[in-house]
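ok so heres the complex, two chains, lmk if somethin looks off
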Amino acid sequence: MVAVEAAAALLAWLGASLLVLADGRRGLALGLALLTAGFAVLALAGGLQLGAAVVAAGGGIAAWQCWRSPAANWGIMPAGSTPRLVLCIGSGLLGLWIAAVVTLGPGSALRFAILVVLGLMGARVLSSSELHVVLAGIAGLALALGAAPGLDLLSDGTVPDVAGGLIAAGVMALPRSAHVHSGAAEPDKRAT
Amino acid sequence: MQLELLAAAAATLVLAVVFAPPRVVRASLLTWGLAGLAGMAAIALAPSLDLVLLIVLVLAVLQARLASHRDFATRVRGPVLAVVLLAIGLAFERVDGPVLLERFGAVGIVAGLVAAIGLFPYIHEFDPEESVVASPIPWIAFIGPLLAVTVMSWTRQVVAADVSDAFGAVLIGLGLLNVAWGSIASWRTESDAAAWRYSFMADWGLALCGFGMAISDGMAAALVLLVSVVLGRLPLYLWSRQALREKRPADRPINLLIAALLAGSAPFAGFAARVLLLRGATQLYWPLALVLALAMLLWLPASLRLGRSLGGPRGRQAVGVAIVLALNVLLGLYPQPLLKLAGL
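and the predicted structre for the whole thing:
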């Protein structure tokens, strides 16, 4: 079981790294799919069957929404993405050190996955102004937030997992025209 | 404390819609205000801090979808940073590790809270021409107070006793920075709309100091201040927007009264909060009270400026201003029922 959890945490880190390294929708979709698989397996290992199912479904829908977008391309590691690569490797090493060396007790795989995905998704959302990238980052962040109660042995993580999965699916399914910002859509200045 | 702030926010929404200036689109204000209230109720009822963070994420995405000159990514940045900092801080508090990690966790939680509200050093980008519902104002004056109280109440259960000193110290430090930054910027900035926004920051600085003291006087001061932000400063700001756009400041007696309310003079709610805060600071560490007392003088020039910027309220707007003044006098003279209700 420990090996499965470790593999799932690694998958989550790989997915988050792909989300950071990709600019194209297909690359982001693959990242979201890997991230979802990682957190779904971790939830299942924690005994949260319902949570795992909703995380898999929600993350899967989010990845599918990203994949089927028009003009989809891979866009993984475009020119000038060395700082992002360094961020992915550096955050992975830092997360691993904190989860395995600095902190004690069982569940180091979950600790690693949560810390590293939170950090990477935060960095991705803050550093990008592309709408689809930001939404994919928020979907990944929702999945990590849903898994976070697993760090506390006394708390039940089913409800946050379900909420995280639903939010991930909902964020990517937002109607595109509503959040596209353009000069044509002039805000109503009279409204307070 | 959540119930009181939720009730205050609901009352402010009613005041803002009923007594709105003639050209305001009431339906939009009411719709988004009710959506905000629903989100606040969900935050107050959430059974864990993790769910609170997920609700904040949803609210941030929904608000950032509204039409605005600022793009989606820019508007969602502040709340997302807040959620990430709070989640990492919470994770550090939950795991078994050295005290240093728990201290980092406490700093992360405070930084996340400050980022969620949009205070210094995580000030949200502000466009004076933007509609209020799409601007950072709901975070600093409508949802923010209840969110802060909720986060504080959950955090007190998570933060270990040997880290609570560091937690309080960071809150007080950031609170003092915001007091200085907000009050001086509100006085010196060129734009009147920006001055209003900075004045919210200054009030929040005092509230953070109150939270950081972690004694009943400090908590009581924070609650009274936050209620006065929601029930005083916010509706006055909403009603000042038309006068700001038409650039018609006024120097009538009513403007002086409004300035007194905004400055926290007696007998308004801000005065009671300041007295409680100074009493708490004296119990904790008297030089802090001295610094706070000096900083409180900075409210005066900014408040006179903001009072003028409201113009001469007429018609139903004058009735709204009178109600806000009366509510703040009531809260300033008799804060005890509110504090009793909050268990302080």
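quick notes: DSSP finds 16 helices and no strands in chain B. thats all i got rn
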